[in-house]
Amino acid sequence: MRIFANPVGAGSLWFDNLATADGTPVAYDPQARAFLPMPPFCANRERIGCNWTAAKEGEFCRSCAMTALAPDPSIANAIPNWAQTEAAKRWVLDNLGRWHWFRPEDPGARPVFHLLAEGPSPVPMGHAAGVVTISVAEVDPVLLTTRREALQEPYRTMIGHMRHEIGHMLWWRLSLREDFLKAFRAMFGDERIDYPAALRYHYENGPPAEWRQLYLTSYASAHPHEDWAETTAHLLHLTDIADSFVATGLSSPEMPDPGWDPYSEPDPERLIHIAATLTVGVNHVNRSMGLADLYPFVLSDYARRKLAFVHSWLRRGALGL
Ligand SMILES: [Zn+2]
Ligand SMILES: [Zn+2]
Known about the structure:
Elements: E1 4-5, E2 12-13, E3 27-29, E4 34-36, H1 45-48, E5 67-69, H2 78-97, E6 112-116, E7 126-128, E8 131-135, H3 141-151, H4 158-174, H5 178-188, H6 195-205, H7 211-214, H8 224-248, H9 268-287, H10 301-317
Parallel strand pairs: 5-6, 6-8
Antiparallel strand pairs: 1-2, 3-4, 7-8
Helix pairs in contact: 2-4, 4-8, 8-9, 8-10
The structure holds zinc ion (ZN) (2 copies).
């Protein structure tokens, strides 16, 4: 993620800021990718702290307009959890917008979000025919820690859920193309194999012994759809890590030049190499605070080939190229 100029004074603004350091309200214009001082604010600004602009006063921003179902406000913490969930969604939508997805120049369908609070039973997250369902309860740190332990997914995060589930939606968009489907099946396998049976098998038997050579995560081995979604999430993680690193003004001998834009990089191997190198460094920095690694995943040659495949389709797919 970039760091933005303050439109009314000195200093910088972070992507989630609602105001400058001296308290002047500002909002992020996702089309201009810049902060503005007095635009029409999103209608969700007061309610959930959405800091995006709207086309007109009283309307929702582009991101909030994609939320068809918001959580039941009578459930405890539904509104603050929803606010954090929308913040993760805006972040990922802005990332994908760098490759033109869901912006005005993209002629295809937008994702429809069902962001649901949890009552006594968990909300199953997933994607079906363009609809992304997310449990907003997963921003709760206690519940998230419990699920991380139970599911052995220590890197479960809301931004990761967004990247994974929107990844399924992107597959659904791309699957309208015969050339994509043919290439996808050659790289990831045939997604027409029985999905419920494949997931049941995965949960009963675990991943194949050699999964680390073939997949980014154990869950990716469950089914070609999950392999695609996990690979897409990781491509978005890595590209965003590189983008955020560049935005700080720090440099690395691996990086081409200070103005390098990871989202404009045409060579996936170069992008993945630079991002993977940065993660090794930042993992080491995290250890100096006793924190877990930022990105503890090992990228096998085969996983890198799949990341390159997703990169090529995400870079041109929104424009039908
Ligand atoms: Zn909004
Ligand atoms: Zn999935």
